[in-house]
Design goal:
It is built from 32 helices and 21 strands. The protein is of the alpha+beta class. α8 runs antiparallel to α9, α13 packs antiparallel against α14 and α13 packs antiparallel against α16. The N and C termini lie far apart (about 90 Å).
């Protein structure tokens, strides 16, 4: 026999060979939509987790589907007037719940399936078997007392299935069966039955106006329930009970004043609980402002908001998000997991399900023939709706967290079973409710109050929808970039970062590995100061930092990036970039520097383009970027600062290396005539306890040219007096010594406070400190007729198709230098070696009995101009610096 068939000619649906009525047809069609959703996502989850379609992930949905097909068939044939929308909502939510448990807590999956099947059986029993519900009315006190008794036993025999010593809300079934039951869940239903029966009795006796008769019994019984829950610190359930009582009381009486008083009492109780219970204070503080304690006590709610923001509109896809960062996500925060993996569309769908359930439930109450049925349907609907509102509002920070679960979706046997009981009663009542067209007109007072309650609940659900829109869309871009968002780390772990090569294609950095096991490797370890480093744990530096965006993200369109990374979940692939650096020159420079402490930088200047390309950067002591993670703590504590790139970040006293720049300014201002005699040129200058003398002591130092060759401090000291502060400042500006440099790598800007002594400033021993990079730019300007060059360290980036394209240097505001036209007076008189190297060197006092040695050199090789700048820390003479600089230029030529 065919289980299910669709006859398109007669537009009828058959189940087990028999035609279905209207309710059955609607339930079956909606059920097929739910089944399509559940099975497609189960297959997707299987592929994500296993890499293939595994039966393990389909068994739960299959059992779930069979159970609901049987349920629809039995209800359609035995209770044809059942509400199909309630059953469809239940089917979708429970199927979604099975998916979430499989996704988030697979070890609980078999239990969740068992509870769903048991709940389905309970629905059939409750809907099909009872002839009436009079026995619920008759034994309301007995049932409620049984519930209170079971709750009371948790004070003695209560356990926590997780093994914790707190929150012992569960009872374990006898005979050591590992099944636990939470009495407070059953008590919710029993309290609804009690209140419905009680208000029904008062309606029949026409006692709605006698408030004492109304309040006395329900205050005693309901108050006792809430007192026990508060004593047990199950404050979420206590809040739920209180709101249930207020809502039903209003439907029964319409007393707005008492409703307002009840809410005021709830606020007062909340204030008391804030100061009395630590857990309440924690949740309220996290609700008001969770961000200051995002990594501490507010971690759960903050991670929930990150989940909604990460999901955005369309979601990450099942198995593709990171909801596992949320503690107890499969229970209290399953709604946040849905928001992350199904996005705003998914979370609004769940919200709509509860709105539809609320609407259908209240309509059943509105159409009920008897007051008891009305109050029972209303109470069940209110209970489920408020519980959904509390948890959905809590995880979206619309309300403080209360610790309740999301009905039908969250993991939990007690909640699942009792929720199915309530839905079974609703389905039973829907079979006995009168048709909408046969309702009494005008409406009774209770029906009018019920409609008002409908508007209130609908408005509250709407607020939750706005909250979802706020966190998933409006605030997503703002909060996702916070440093404490672990999803940024997860994304970075999967980025296929681009490679870095030198100008000739020699590999300097590459990413190896697969998935989340990616490693950044540096084939030439001594390239570290120039290239920098990329570390998941310790961040970025150097080129890795300055061009981080290009290395981690190819220049695709926003739509393509969204499709590739968010929809297909392919890892981001960055650009390869080609540097101006020359690995061969870098290796040579590193060998020449040997064990010296200091920095060296080599340029190639295109005079026509006025563009200087950096060929080498050496900084010592250095580090191996391949060993950064293992050695980082030791590196940052090392007083020799091996992580510092001395060429771009080391600030040094310039000392006598400033001499040609000061002199060039003076010549251009006509303060000095280059050939005029210089009296007392060889006299020393005393700087604190240091005696500064000419670097080359000769008897013929009697002109400015000889002063340059001898690096004599006394004439410069006197010239500083002559130029005064304004003249020294003009020199600084003249050669760009205090201007920023347009390079997107970590740089230290030259520092200079107010000039204290123009005389000391003229010999580089006042307040000015600068980097070798800044001095190198000034050196090229001096040798290029006063043109302040632009600098470049990255040449090109590479598309995924292999083609290279120019990548512009990020713009940094830079002041143009004056257009100098005559630097030859100083250029032609600088020292020159037999190898045609124009050079200048000098020392700088950098501390007590401590000196640094500077070297500037330039040479034209094969019609290209090369410039080298280096500093050696702690060298008393310039001999070693000159040796290294000359050898580097000779090595380039050779």
């Amino acid at each position: 026999m065919t289980i299910f068939s669709l006859n398109t000619s007669t537009k009828s649906i058959h189940l087990f060979g028999r035609p279905l009525g209207r309710s059955g047809r609607v339930a079956m069609m909606l059920g097929l939509v739910s089944a399509l959703f559940v099975f497609s996502n189960a297959i997707s989850l299987s592929i994500v987790v296993e890499g293939r379609i595994a039966w393990f992930h389909l068994i739960g949905p299959l059992i779930w589907l069979i159970g609901y097909i049987i349920t629809i068939g039995l209800l359609a044939y035995l209770k044809p007037k059942f509400d199909p929308y309630i059953l469809a909502v239940l089917m979708l939510l429970t199927g979604w719940g099975i998916l979430m448990v499989d996704r988030l807590a697979v070890n609980f999956l078999s239990r969740q399936i068992a509870w769903v099947i048991l709940g389905t059986a309970v629905i059939l029993v409750i809907t099909l078997l009872p002839k009436n519900l009079n026995w619920l009315r008759r034994y309301r006190y007995t049932l409620l007392i049984i519930g209170i008794f079971l709750l009371g036993t948790t004070f003695i025999f209560g356990v926590n299935p997780s093994g914790a010593t707190t929150a012992n809300y569960w009872l374990q079934l006898p005979f050591s069966i590992p099944v636990f039951f939470q009495p407070s869940e059953l008590l919710k239903l029993l309290l609804v039955i009690f209140l419905a029966s009680f208000f029904d009795e008062q309606t029949l006796l026409n006692r709605q106006n006698n408030i004492l008769n109304l309040l006395a019994p329900i205050t005693v019984m309901g108050g006792f329930c809430m007192l026990m829950l508060v004593w047990q610190r199950d404050l979420g359930a206590a809040t739920l009970f209180f709101l249930l009582f207020l809502s039903l009381f209003y439907v029964a009486t319409g007393r707005k004043l008492y409703l307002l008083a009840g809410f005021c009492l709830l606020i007062v109780a909340g204030i008391f609980a804030y100061f009395w219970f630590d857990v309440v204070a924690l949740r309220v503080d996290a609700w008001v402002n969770p961000w200051p304690d995002a990594d501490g006590r507010a971690f759960q709610i903050v991670q929930s908001l990150y989940a909604f923001a990460s999901g955005g509109i369309f979601g990450q896809g099942i198995g593709q998000g990171f909801p596992g960062y949320i503690p107890v996500v499969h229970s209290d925060f399953v709604f946040a997991a849905i928001g992350e993996e199904w996005g705003l569309i998914g979370s609004l769908t769940v919200l709509f399900c509860f709105v539809l359930l609320m609407h259908r439930g209240l309509m059943i109450g509105l159409r009920a023939k008897r007051p008891f049925h009305r109050y029972l349907a209303t109470g069940i609907t209110i209970l489920i709706s408020i519980q959904a509102i509390l948890i959905m509002g809590g995880v979206t920070k619309l309300l403080p967290l209360t610790g309740v679960t999301l009905p039908f979706v969250s993991y939990g046997g007690s909640s699942m079973l009792v929720s199915h009981m309530m839905l079974g009663l609703l389905l039973y009542l829907s079979c006995h409710a009168q048709e909408a067209g046969h309702m009494a007109v005008p409406l009774t007072k209770a029906q009018k109050h019920l409609r008002q309650l409908h508007i209130i609940l609908l408005s509250t659900f709407a607020l939750i929808g706005l909250s979802l829109l706020y966190w998933s869309v409006a605030q997503a871009g703002t909060i996702l970039i916070r440093d404490d968002n672990p999803r940024q780390v997860e994304t970075a772990l999967r980025v296929q970062r681009g490679s870095i090569v030198d100008r000739n294609g020699v590999l300097l950095a590459e990413t190896t590995g697969e998935g989340n096991l990616l490693t950044r490797e540096y084939p030439l370890p001594n390239i570290g100061p120039a290239v920098g480093y990329y570390s998941f744990r310790h961040g970025t530096a150097g080129i890795e930092d300055g061009y981080n965006l290009s290395l981690s993200q190819a220049p695709y369109s926003q739509f393509f990036r969204f499709w590739n990374e968010s929809i297909l979940h392919r890892p981001a692939v960055g650009n390869n970039i080609r540097l101006t650096l020359d690995a061969e020159n870098q290796q040579l420079a590193h060998r020449l520097m040997a064990e010296q402490s200091g920095g060296l930088i080599l340029f190639q200047l295109d005079k026509e383009e006025n563009l200087a390309e950096i060929l080498s950067m050496v900084s010592l002591p250095s580090h191996d970027p391949n060993l950064l993670d293992d050695q980082f703590d030791a590196l940052i504590e090392d007083e020799n600062a091996p992580l510092l790139n001395r060429t771009t970040q080391g600030l040094y006293q310039p000392g006598m290396i400033l001499q040609p720049f000061i002199l060039a300014t003076a010549v251009n201002q006509n303060s000095v005539v280059i050939n005029q005699p210089v009296p007392n040129a060889t006299l020393p200058v005393t700087l604190d306890k240091e005696i500064l003398q000419c670097q080359e002591t000769r008897s013929d130092i009697d002109s400015w040219e000889a002063v340059l060759h001898g690096r004599c401090p006394n004439p410069m000291h006197q010239l500083g007096h002559q130029l005064n502060t304004m003249g020294i400042e003009q020199t600084y500006a003249f050669f760009g010594l205090t201007q920023s440099i347009a390079l997107p790598i970590p740089l230290e800007t030259t520092t200079v406070s107010e000039i204290e002594s123009p005389a000391l400033a003229a010999i580089g021993q006042d307040t000015l400190t600068l980097t070798p990079l800044t001095l190198g730019r000034a050196w090229m300007m001096l040798m290029n007729n006063g043109r302040l060059p632009k600098m470049q360290i990255v040449l090109q980036a590479q598309h995924s198709d292999g083609t290279w394209f120019d990548i512009p240097t990020p713009a940094i505001e830079e002041t143009e230098s004056p257009n100098l036209v005559d630097m030859t007076a100083v250029q032609e008189r600088l020292p020159q070696t037999e190898d045609q190297v124009v050079e200048f060197s000098g020392t700088a006092v950098s501390g007590e009995s401590q000196r640094d040695s500077w070297y500037l050199g330039t040479k034209t090789i094969n019609n290209l101009d090369y410039f080298v700048v280096l500093i050696l820390e702690g060298n008393q003479t310039v001999a070693e610096a000159e040796k290294i600089g000359r050898a580097l230029l000779k090595g380039i030529e050779g």
